[in-house]
Specification:
The complex is a heterodimer of chains A (about 260) and B (about 220). With about 260 residues, chain A is of the alpha/beta class. Chain A has a domain of about 170 residues: 3-Layer(aba) Sandwich (Rossmann fold). Chain A is built from ten helices and ten strands. Chain A has a six-stranded mixed β-sheet with strand order 6-7-8-3-9-10, with helices on both faces. In chain A, β1 and β2 form a beta hairpin. Chain A is globular, with a radius of gyration of 18 Å. Chain B has a single domain, classed as Methane Monooxygenase Hydroxylase, Chain G, domain 1 (Up-down Bundle), CATH 1.20.58. Chain B is about 85% helix and about 0% strand. Chain B has seven helices and no strands. In chain B, α1 runs parallel beside α3 and α3 packs antiparallel against α6. Chain B is elongated and about 65 Å long. The N and C termini of chain B lie far apart (about 40 Å). The chains are: A alpha/beta (about 260), B mainly alpha (about 220).
Chain lengths: ~260, ~220
């Protein structure tokens, strides 16, 4: 998906315009308008149930599979609506990869886990697949640990390794945007630090949007932070400002731990 | 129900206020000792007050480090801790200056009175008033009050310059009293420095409350008053 109006990098990679979301009769998001910049890490923070994960899932239409899910307003990637009638959802999920809180490797070999996506999208050549698998595992910081046992079962890997495998899997289809929903919350501190380092490296090439309830993590890894509360964005600003001088009282109360 | 961090911050506030009260008092007593030629009162400031303020200052700094390490505060809590660290250092310097004034007072009390129209009453009052206002602005988290302190600094600088001129003239007139006169010059400088530190403290309060760093911007304040 390329913005063919200009050769410049667009100012916002992902834009939402007055986005509202309903789970059946229940409204979960209220008129959210956010411009997410390209090749940066944007963190979504807020107390449980504030809508940040729901918002994340509207960006690659993962909510489609939920009964009674309804979207109002617009979500644009590179200036084009992803909820248009002619949107190719499969192509969308190639552009927008996702890593989940609980790593979910397939019960297959490490190689097969990473090769699965590209295969589904039409890559047949074994040589090409091997190339993609290696590149993805290198990018995810896992290659050196698994390169001699690619045929081994992915479920034998440690929690931290499995999560990095899921990152590799997401990267294998060559997305432009990476969504991460609490990617380190199930990991020990050392694995968490590795994932955060990884995010720092990946941001050079991908637009990353991460949901986290760990404020210090948001402060460490992100360039921009959006504070969600009860389905609305209360404040969206450069991360250093959110954590040194937030403009809204509620934001300050949240980041200083006075509630939530 | 206040969090652990909120309780630590309240404790730190109270300690800072205790220290500031002690320091204000030391300044007042050293200036009085100078005016009254009271060596005993001056020695009390030098020996007793200084030790107490040093201990409190170290205690406050250690508390700040502990809070930073254990709680990793952000936003207003972070600005508060950073401001306390800086204000703590300024208070320590003011305490040192009170000692310096007290030392001059001891020297001068052991000499014949200078009998010159050089009085520090006005200057000392202004410097002490600035200090008090700066500390009040800290207590009340009042950035506007703090800005008033910043705008008042020039007055004390002017008096200091006038003092210099007067003392220079006196030295030329009475060169045999130059020792004592040099001490008076030092007192003027000490009071001017106390006013500077009051300004620093006020600037730190503005930062704490508004999140703006306002050093080197004194001309802005005067146009706002």
């Amino acid at each position: 998906m390329v913005n063919d109006a200009t050769d410049r990098e667009p100012e916002a990679k992902v834009q939402t315009r007055d986005l509202s979301f309903y789970y059946g009769p229940v409204q979960a998001l209220f008129g959210i308008s956010l411009d997410i910049p390209p090749r940066q890490v944007t963190a979504l923070i807020g107390p449980s149930g504030c809508g940040k994960s729901t918002f994340l899932r509207t960006l690659n239409r993962m909510n489609d599979i939920i009964d009674g899910a309804r979207v109002e307003g617009e979500v644009l990637i590179d200036g084009r609506s992803i909820y248009a009638d002619d949107t190719d959802v499969v192509a969308l999920r190639k552009t927008v990869g996702m890593v989940f809180q609980k790593s979910n490797p397939f019960p297959k070999s490490i190689f097969e886990n990473v090769a699965y996506g590209p295969r589904v999208h039409g890559v047949r050549s074994r040589a090409r697949l091997a190339e993609i698998v290696e590149r993805s595992l290198v990018r995810a910081g896992l290659w050196s640990e698994v390169k001699d046992r690619l045929e081994k079962n992915a479920l034998d890997l440690s929690g931290g390794q499995q999560q990095r495998l899921c990152v590799a899997r997401a990267l294998a289809i060559d997305p432009e945007i990476l969504l991460m929903d609490e990617p380190a919350s199930a990991l020990d501190p050392r694995s968490t630090a590795r994932i955060e380092e990884l995010i720092g490296e990946l941001r050079r090439d991908y637009t990353i949007i991460i949901v986290t309830h760990n404020m210090q993590q948001a402060a460490r890894v992100s360039d921009m932070t959006a504070f969600f509360y009860e389905g609305r964005v209360i404040e969206f600003d450069a991360t250093p400002r959110i954590f040194t001088k937030p403009q809204q009282h509620r934001t300050e109360d949240y980041v200083t731990g006075r509630f939530g | 129900m206040p969090t652990h961090l909120e309780r630590e911050i309240e404790r730190l506030k109270r300690k800072t206020l205790s220290l500031s009260a002690l320091v204000e008092d030391s300044v007042r007593r050293s200036v009085r000792a100078l005016a009254d030629r009271d060596a005993a009162a001056a020695r009390h400031v030098i020996e007793v007050d200084d030790r107490e303020t040093n201990d409190m200052e170290v205690d406050i700094e250690e508390d700040c480090l502990k809070i930073l390490a254990l709680h990793q505060p952000v936003a207003i809590d972070l600005r508060f801790i950073v401001s306390v660290l800086k204000i703590n250092a300024d208070l320590e310097r003011v305490a040192d200056l009170a000692v310096n004034i007290a030392e001059r007072a001891v020297f001068l009390s052991e000499q014949d009175p200078l009998d010159l129209p050089i009085h520090f009453g006005v200057m000392a009052e202004k410097a002490q008033a600035m200090l008090k206002k700066a500390l009040d602005s800290l207590v009340n988290m009042d950035a506007d009050l703090a800005r008033e302190v910043c705008a008042a600094d020039d007055e004390v600088d002017d008096i200091n310059r006038q003092m210099y001129a007067k003392i220079q003239a006196a030295i030329l007139e009475r060169p045999s009293r130059v020792d004592g006169l040099m001490h008076l010059l030092a007192v003027s400088r000490h009071l001017e420095r106390i006013a500077d530190h009051a300004t620093n403290i006020a600037e730190d309060v503005v930062y704490m409350v508004d999140g703006e760093i306002v050093r080197h911007r004194s001309t802005d304040f005067k146009s706002q008053i």
